[in-house]
Design goal:
mainly alpha
């Protein structure tokens, strides 16, 4: 309902943007702690990708339980804003580390030059 969404817009924005940034930074720090060879920026990209939420199951459960429509609208709106902020944050961090479509990949993406040969079974044995 658009009327409920407009009334809750300030709450949705407060939950979506700072929540997304905080969740992605915490996830990035955990990845960085697990793989210290990578830079924090690369780990933060992974955190951004994995921190966007999907409320489909939660909203379905709320409807089954008869929860107020305002709560479902709040969660759905926060998820939509969360996804949008994840895209913006991902592009910003990607550009901050110097990777764009028009440039060569950064050092951490170059690899050893080996290409996939198509021989799946021989690569695992």
């Amino acid at each position: 309902d658009m009327g409920i969404f407009k009334k809750q817009l300030s709450q949705i924005v407060i939950m979506a943007f700072p929540g997304m940034i905080l969740a992605s930074v915490v996830t990035g720090l955990l990845v960085w702690a697990a793989i210290p060879d990578w830079t924090f920026w690369v780990c933060w990209l992974i955190g951004i990708i994995s921190s966007a939420t999907d409320p489909v199951a939660v909203v379905a459960l709320l409807k089954d339980l008869g929860a107020p429509k305002t709560l479902g609208t709040l969660i759905e709106g926060e998820s939509l804003m969360n996804d949008g902020s994840a895209v913006v944050l991902f592009v910003w961090v990607r550009n901050a580390i110097g990777y764009t479509y028009s440039t060569a990949p950064p050092e951490w993406m170059e690899g050893d030059g080996k290409r996939y040969t198509g021989e799946v079974a021989s690569e695992f044995f």
